């Protein structure tokens, strides 16, 4: 069955995961309708040299699951598919506990939350967890997709709408809708991020998982109350395109930059230095900014898997990589079940190598934030120079909730040497945002919120500019 989606407010509104300060992962399925996808695939890794067995899986009666294997060989992974089948409309809070042979104290606990808006059919076919062989989440087969833009109130299609698509943290193309307000494109299965704008309307951001069952996406735009209609003239208006127009890569990037600057930014890193405000945002000249030595500690735990979180993180990293100078260095440390160096510190003139590593990032396992932070400092100190802007920046969607009791001592130790510690929060809850703000305080850094693409476009780069700013010479 092919499905058409009408995105009334935002794609997957509320479909974000938050992490608690205990070892639980909270998986928030958001609002669920009859036809909603109700399962999530988690990857469980074994970094140890011994075999690990999944002894049993405890779960609420309204949960079903599948495992690819109950044996996790050394340095390998298995997949756990969890489906929720709430029985009553309204909020739900379900539990899955994973007992592993190497967990002696407590099982791994997942809390599944969300809100059921429509009653589910009482059918075993519907409530049964889908078989891994019955779906092809990793298929590369493209499907034809129609994207339509309409006026939210009148439901009339909108010509001359600019639609930019982001995939895997990189621009995938920009289209201008024609007279019918739509365009068609073949897209492979996967998560895509849409940015839609039009004169007189508020710019809209939305993300959705595109699968073979989706054939049409309708994007409604709301009128901008601040927009003033142009004064009528007797001149004939420019002809509207009969068909949609796809822009060149150069034009696409220019349009996307314009879409980002046209939006009202909710929260950007605080401009704590008035002098910096006077310097254009694309200025990263060495006369104003120190050489940068930065290592990012990236959360790739399971809670980063759903929604647009990974795309927002990748997009923000790509934006920074594009602006790095040859003398700058950027490294990537990842953490999930354990921590590892994903990309050793690399100079800014190797942009494609950096972007390739960013593209290869994938969410995996639980959260070991404390280990990641320590490894991040180890990497940044390899290129430490007191005359540089030395930074460790954590990017996460929640608190550092595992093996992180002593991270404050690590942060404070290196802060004495001038290493700045900042935290980027990807769609974090208010409670976790406060914890991140407190954590950054220990390292003389800042909390940098990223809630949507306009934040990812500028906030991380602005944080680097703040940390490396020399000041304006008189």
CATH homology group of the largest domain: von Willebrand factor, type A domain
State the CATH class of the largest domain: Alpha Beta
The coarse silhouette is globular
Biggest sheet record: 6 strands, mixed
- Low-pLDDT parts are 8-23, 264-272
Separation, N- and C-terminal Cα atoms: 68 Å
* Major sheet strand order: 2-3-10-9-5-7
The CATH architecture of the largest domain comes to: 3-Layer(aba) Sandwich
Tell me the structural class: alpha/beta
Total domain modules:
3
Helix fraction by DSSP (H/I, runs of at least 4): 10-25%
Strand content: 25-35%
List the helices and strands and how they pair.
Blueprint: E1 3-6, E2 18-19, E3 25-32, E4 39-46, E5 52-59, E6 63-67, E7 71-72, E8 76-84, E9 90-100, E10 108-116, H1 124-127, E11 143-151, E12 162-167, E13 170-176, E14 182-187, E15 190-197, E16 204-210, E17 214-221, E18 245-246, H2 249-262, H3 274-277, E19 292-299, H4 309-323, E20 329-335, E21 339-347, H5 351-359, H6 369-380, E22 389-396, H7 407-415, E23 420-426, H8 430-442, E24 444-450, H9 453-468
Parallel strand pairs: 1-17, 3-10, 11-17, 19-20, 19-22, 22-23, 23-24
Antiparallel strand pairs: 2-3, 4-8, 5-7, 5-9, 6-8, 9-10, 11-14, 12-13, 12-15, 13-18, 15-16, 20-21
Helix pairs in contact: 4-5, 4-9, 6-7
């Amino acid at each position: 069955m092919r499905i058409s989606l009408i995105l009334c407010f935002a794609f997957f509104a509320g479909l974000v995961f938050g992490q608690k300060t205990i070892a639980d992962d909270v998986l928030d399925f958001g609002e669920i309708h009859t036809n909603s996808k109700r399962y999530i695939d988690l990857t469980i890794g074994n970094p140890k040299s011994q075999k690990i067995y999944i002894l049993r899986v405890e779960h609420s009666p309204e949960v079903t699951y599948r495992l690819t294997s109950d044996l996790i060989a050394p340095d390998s992974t298995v997949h756990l598919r969890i489906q929720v089948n709430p029985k009553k409309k309204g909020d739900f809070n379900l539990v899955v506990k994973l007992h592993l042979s190497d967990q002696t104290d407590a099982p791994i606990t997942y809390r599944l939350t969300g809100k059921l808006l429509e009653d589910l059919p009482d059918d075993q076919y519907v409530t049964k967890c889908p078989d891994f062989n019955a779906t092809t989440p990793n298929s590369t087969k493209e499907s034809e997709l129609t994207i339509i833009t309409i006026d939210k109130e009148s439901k009339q299609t909108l010509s001359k709408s600019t639609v930019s698509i982001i995939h895997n943290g990189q621009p995938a193309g920009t289209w201008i809708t024609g007279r019918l307000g739509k365009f068609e494109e073949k897209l492979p299965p996967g998560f895509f991020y849409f940015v839609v704008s039009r004169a007189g309307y508020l710019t809209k951001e939305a993300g959705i998982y595109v699968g073979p069952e989706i054939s049409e996406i309708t994007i409604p735009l709301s009128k901008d109350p601040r927009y003033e209609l142009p004064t009528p003239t007797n001149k004939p208006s420019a002809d509207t395109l009969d068909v949609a127009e796809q822009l060149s890569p150069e034009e696409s990037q220019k349009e996307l930059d314009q879409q980002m600057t046209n939006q009202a930014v909710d929260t950007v890193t605080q401009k704590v230095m008035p002098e910096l405000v006077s310097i254009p945002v694309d200025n990263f000249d060495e006369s104003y900014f120190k050489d940068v030595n930065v290592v990012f500690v990236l959360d790739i735990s399971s809670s980063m898997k759903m929604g647009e979180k990974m795309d927002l993180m990748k997009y923000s990293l790509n934006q920074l990589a594009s602006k790095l100078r040859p003398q700058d260095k950027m490294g990537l440390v990842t953490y999930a079940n354990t921590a590892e160096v994903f990309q050793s510190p690399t100079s800014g003139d190797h942009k494609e190598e950096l972007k390739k590593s960013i593209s290869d990032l994938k969410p995996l396992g639980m959260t070991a934030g404390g280990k990641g932070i320590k490894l991040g400092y180890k990497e940044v100190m390899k290129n430490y120079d007191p005359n540089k802007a030395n930074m460790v920046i954590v990017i996460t969607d929640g608190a550092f909730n595992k093996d992180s009791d002593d991270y404050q001592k690590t942060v404070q130790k290196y802060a004495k040497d001038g290493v700045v510690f900042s935290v980027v929060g990807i769609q974090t809850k208010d409670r976790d945002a406060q914890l991140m703000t407190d954590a950054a305080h220990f390292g003389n850094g800042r909390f940098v919120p990223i809630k949507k693409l306009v934040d990812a476009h500028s906030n991380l780069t602005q944080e680097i500019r703040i940390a490396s700013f020399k000041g304006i010479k008189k």
